[in-house]
Amino acid sequence: MKELDMNKLYDGIIIGGGPAGLSAAIYLARAKYRVLVIEKEKMGGQITITSEVVNYPGVPETDGTRLTENMRKQAEFFGAEFMMAEVSEIHPDGDIKEVVTEKGTFETLGIVLATGASPRKIGFEGETKFQGRGVAYCATCDGEFFTGLDVFVLGGGFAAAEESMFLTKYARKVTVIVREEDFTCAASIADQVRNHPGIEVHYQTEIVEAGGESTLQYAVFKNNETGETWKYEPPEGKSFGIFVFAGYAPATALFKDFLELSEDGYLVTDINQKTSADGFYGAGDICVKNLRQVVTAVSDGAVAATSLEKYLSGMYEALRLPEREIPAPKREKPVDVPADETKDQSGFLTEEMKRQLKPVFEKMEKNVILKFYTDDSAISREVQGFASEMEGLSPHIRCELEQDDPEGMEYPAIQICDGDGNYLGTSFHGVPGGHEFNSFIIAIYNAAGPGQAIDRDLLGRIKKIDRNIKIQTVVSLSCTMCPELVMAVQRIALENPRIEADIYDMAHYPELKDKYQIMSVPCMIVDEKDVYFGKKSVEEILGLLEK
Does the keyword Flavoprotein apply (predicted)? Predict the structure, then answer.
């Protein structure tokens, strides 16, 4: 075995930055091991789209973002390191495991897999055709599209029950379709749904078909007890929505070839969260389990980490590794910041956000200019405020409020330009807050260099495109699926001067929603004609552009 460099070797790498991964990081880092958490989209995972968390013990009321942000701070306090990157491969053989990402390959003694799960499709006729035009999978992301319309929720579990109540904020009426004889979630939650005046429930019923022309115009349902079918059609001139909450598909593609999975594709672990291979542990929604909630994810992470601790102790002895000298935490102990105090009184950027941006900006190699085009609208005034906060964060960033009125400009717009003021092909229309702030910062980082690593073959395919392409991407700032698409589109535009990427905050561009009949985000429009829904990687987008 090659000589080990303890300065490069991690004791544990945690893949996934949701509650399970963050819990594992807290326990492992507190035990004075060197820990790296790798997350591809947003720290906090899917719980960050939950606007109200009221069943986490000891925390009477919070939201998903705030809860997981405090977890991250706690892990960081104990010394855990964090990195935003997508893992492409895991090399499991030998005592030293390798985790391959676009930012490099990292060595570790043990791995905690906390990659989570994504919404599962049912497969009814019309589901794929009308995804984004009536069929949706995230109430927080897409609920607003169905304001004043009828909505059907498919599912009888916790997610279906919780999201059906959330959708009453927007929908004229919510109808829950449950295949079983009753809800499969806790009775307390089910009772809230049954007793809600804006919700109707049909048991032992399933959807058969959904159809229409450009948007949903009808749906057919079947009562499995009686065999009868019935058809729903909205009032004339209206559409409606179908939200699918039929469980989740576990994200196990990275390790399906060398770890044992269940028939449903979930990761098999023992009582100590150990997988079928030494040095690998699982936690959270990817595991075989009866209850998928934040509290069980956190429990899994803690168990996985403590089990990995025992494994690491044995590995240190077997490999005769020197004990690490982990310095005591230098930062102040993290405290829970009240929700109304997480933002500076005067603006968008908190002191914590500025602190996190500092090491990113310090790596920049070239200057960039952010050109802010605004008019007299309220959102433009917010953009001007955002400009004043970005100014001064880095000597490599200069902000300019433009006074000219370019032909065809869609206000407001934030253009990323090089140090000489030349437009680099990507703009954000609105204030890049919420889940899109990271996407915006990464675009600046990629423009200024050194930028994120990118596969050489993908880079070659980007540069090979020799026609002018306009890509419009419509997002919601509360959507966790949008950033992956936004970052991919921006990266393609930054690497090819013939491609232009415009990102729109849906809340301020209703005309795009109407023009392209958008009822779900993220939505990508190519050359103002071809419309695609859902998150996509650089490779997936290139496949569409190369057609």
Answer: yes
Q: Cβ contacts of residue 204 below 8 Å, gap of 6+?
A: 178, 179, 180, 181, 223, 224, 225
Mean pLDDT of the chain: 90
Residue 309's φ and ψ, nearest 5 degrees, are: -55, -45
Same domain, 434 and 523: yes
| 305 shares its domain with 196 | no
Q: For position 339, what pLDDT does the model report?
A: 47
More confident residue, 305 or 44: 305
Q: Is 425 a domain residue? A: yes
3-state SS, 106-133, equals EEEEEEEECCCEEECCCCCECCCCCECC
Render pLDDT for 519-538 as a digit per residue (tens, 0 to 9).
999 999 999 999 999 889 89
pLDDT digits (tens, 9 = 90+) for 396-433: 999 999 977 888 889 999 999 999 999 999 999 999 98
Per-residue model confidence as pLDDT tens digits over 191-216: 999 999 999 999 999 999 999 988 89
Pick the last residue of a domain from 225, 246, 267. 246
Long-range residue pairs from 201-206, CB within 8 A, at least 24 positions apart, any chain = 201/175, 201/176, 202/175, 202/176, 202/177, 202/178, 203/178, 204/178, 204/179, 204/180, 205/177, 205/178, 205/179, 206/124, 206/154, 206/177, 206/179
Rounded Cα gap, residues 446 and 142, in angstroms: 30
Looking at the domain assignment, is residue 130 inside a domain? Answer: no
Pick from 243, 296, 268, 298: which is nearest to 119 by CA?
243
Of 105, 114, 98, 94, give the one whose Cα is nearest residue 278: 94
CATH code, domain carrying 453: 3.40.30.80
Residue 222 sits in which domain range?
135-246
Residues 539 and 401 in one domain: yes
29 with 75: CB under 8 angstroms? yes
Residues 516 and 398 in one domain: yes
CA angle 153, 154, 160 (to 5 degrees): 70
- Does 327 map to a domain? no
Q: What pLDDT does 333 receive?
A: 58
- Predicted pLDDT of residue 334: 58
User: Looking at the structure, do residues 378 and 392 belong to the same domain, yes or no?
Assistant: yes
- 3-state class (DSSP) for residue 26: helix
Q: φ and ψ at 349, to 5 degrees?
A: -95, 125
Q: How many domains does the chain have?
A: 3
Instruction: Return the CATH number at 102.
Output: 3.50.50.60
pLDDT tens digits along 286-306: 999 887 788 999 999 999 999
pLDDT digits (tens, 9 = 90+) for 157-201: 988 998 999 999 999 999 999 999 999 988 999 999 999 999 999
> Is residue 332's pLDDT more than 70?
no
339 domain residue, yes or no:
no
Does residue 456 sit in the same domain as residue 383?
A: yes
Identify the helix (H) or strand (E) that includes residue 544: helix 538-545
Which pairs with CB-CB distance under 8 Å and at least 24 residues apart come from 28-31? Answer: 28/80, 28/112, 28/305, 28/308, 28/309, 29/75, 29/78, 29/79, 29/80, 30/78, 31/305, 31/306, 31/309
Q: What is the mean pLDDT of residues 60-73?
A: 86
